[in-house]
Give the backbone structure.
Amino acid sequence: MIKTDICDLLGIEYPVLQGGMAWLGTAELAAAVSEAGGLGIIGAGHMPPDVFRAEIHKLKERTSKPYGCNIMLMSPFVNEVMEVALEERVPVITTGAGNPSTWVPAFKEIGTKVIPVVASVLLAKRLLRGGIDAVIAEGTESGGHVGDITTMCLIPQIVDAVDVPVIAAGGIADGRGMAAALALGASAVQMGSRFVVSEECIAHENYKEAVLKAKDRSTVMTGLTTGHPVRIIENLLARKYQSLEFSGAPKEALENLGAGTLRKAAIEGETKNGSVMIGQIAGMLTDVKPCATIIQDIVREAEEVMLNLKSVIR
Ligand code: TUI
């Protein structure tokens, strides 16, 4: 059995976290992951505070196991959403797209574990001073808003730089990836893309189809010129966005083109003119499974991979 310090820290059975995906990290998905022994995470994304609170209540009705909420620091509702998370005494908070230091003391006071997503050693080191409980090191292979270092290079460098457990994210979707992450020094994995193609994920059928059809080179990064790079499946929107940004269009024009496009793809199934955010590992995903099967499979495979690796030592 694979047990790590993250299992003890978070009170979970398996060291597997679900990425906190905007629009797709619903109470339904998070509850399924938590019930299966991982850590399910509500993706607050751009949720207004009342919607966020309702989603937490929905999750609490479905599971009494530990869960988390991901707060996207670029959200227009970030302050109100943080207040809701404090009031609801959410057991684990993960953050993305920024530095959560100002909120850490308030969460520490009520015993909430704070686990920021980082994409560089510099930010990881800076956050340590605030007393965070662990970090999620996310490689550029991930979907959505990403940094520029690969998981393979980022994980060992973060592991060496911090004295808290490291959770690996980006490009992990099966037991081989999980074993590799543990070999690099990570204590757990976080997966987004794998859970998008789960039975419990509410993504529109077209979105799931696009992910299942994707190949290794199907994703591109948009926003390379804006400072907010976002990995999505290459489609009409991606090409329009890239030609606009490389023609020197003003920031407002890019913002207008990107506004609302994740919802369009994820909920309405607009996979040509919407943002199909997904990681590079999409090329390996060919089936839709229940969350419980995803978690059991990856943990069993990782264990097999690690045991089999002994055979290369002579
Ligand atoms: O946050 C994510 N992934 C996301 S958020 C998102 S919602 C969105 N929608 C439209 C446009 C943009 C975003 C979709 N995917 N992952 C966590 C993550 N955080 N990845 C990278 C970072 C990051 C990057 C720079 C964290 C901190 C950072 O530095 C900030 C600083 O202040 O130093």
User: Anything to note?
Assistant: The chain has a mean pLDDT of 97.
